[in-house]
Amino acid sequence: MSNLFQSIDFKSHSGLDLSWKIECDALQDGEWFTLSKMIMELSPPFSKAVGIPRGGVKLGNLLKQYGTKKKEDPICIVDDVLTTGGSMIEYAETEFKGEDVIGWTVFARGQMPEWVNALFRMPYIDENGDLIKMIGIRD
Asked: β-strands 101-108, 116-121: how paired?
């Protein structure tokens, strides 16, 4: 079993050089189930849930059962870790262009698009070098 938090130099999906990683493959099935329940306690209704390959697939599959299938409800796009938000934006624009979407991620380690929420939000350094302390979910 690997550790959830790892001190390792790696390149993020968006091409950033990072010195630590959140390895969600370390999470057990029961933990993913609990994370899906946590999201459902906070999320507005959504028509269907879709996980961004590869990190969001397991969570997306768990959340699918909660989809209302109503056209007026947004599509819920999920991922495990958000660093820049690029994957969320790209997925929304390529797969669901023009449709109403909401986003959920388990961990956010950078600035999030306005339409994305995170269960666990970390402080980050913005483009001006300022420490941004954000706790909780965006309204």
From this structure: parallel
Place of tokens 């010195």: 19
d(CA 118, CA 42): 10
Where do runs of H (alpha helix) occur along the chain? 29-42, 57-63, 86-95
Residues 6+ apart with CB under 8 A from 139: none
CA distance 48 to 70: 9
Averaged pLDDT, groups of 10, the chain, 139 residues long: 91 87 95 98 98 96 98 98 94 96 96 94 87 60
Q: How far apart are the first and last CA of the chain?
A: 36
Which 3-state string (H, E, C) describes 28-54?
A: CHHHHHHHHHHHHHHCCCCCEEEECCC
102 neighbors 44 (Cβ within 8 angstroms):
yes
Rounded Cα gap, residues 17 and 128, in angstroms:
18
In the block, residue with structure tokens 């059962």: 65
What is the reported pTM? 0.90
